[in-house]
What does this fold into?
Amino acid sequence: MPELLRVGVLVSGGGSNLQALVEACRTGAIQAQIAIVVSNEPSAFALTRARQSGIATAVFDHRTFASSDAFEARIRAELERHRVGLVCLAGFLRILSPRFVDAFPGRIMNIHPALLPAFGGKGMYGERVHRAVLASGARVSGCTVHFVTAVPDAGPIIAQAVVPVDDDETPHALAAKIGTEERRLYPLAVDLFAQGRLRVEGNRVRVLPPLGSGLIAETR
Ligand code: GRF
It folds into this structure.
């Protein structure tokens, strides 16, 4: 049997998305295993979740490094040491440099709590995203799983889920609704990757049919 895809998850906070990925790997919904969880925040609850699930963890506090290059080099070495085939950003609050992104070509995913390409980019994280959505008057929001490129939140979109924005919605309530969708969507996207069913074509992602679906050869 081929070895399961080894996933490295980068976190900074609560880790509810990490938990969803852990559960999906445990139940076999994703044919993959979480090999390492890396945090830049020593107090991130995500680390507790990982440890409780018996997953290896590493903490590299960015404030203790002389440069962001040195910080990233350490994370990269850790991911390589664990022979990671996919890196999942799950609430990781550091923007990764082009050099880091290039080290894992087409192998870094992120989840964002809005419908990209709207409400993304530098400074758009956490409650700020939901406040901006509410201020815009948009009737829907949601979440996006995408491949990471050198431009924050601009990489090819893999999957999206939509939630309605109700009248009198609060940022908190919107975040909760979107969180539920995130925990459903991220495992699905990782599973598609693990099955080798994601093909990037320019800025679009094609989802290939499952193996054994009867498709013998693809014609164009
Ligand atoms: C999620 O809303 C995700 O979209 C964003 O950061 C948040 C992480 O939440 N990138 P959690 O730490 O997974 O609970």
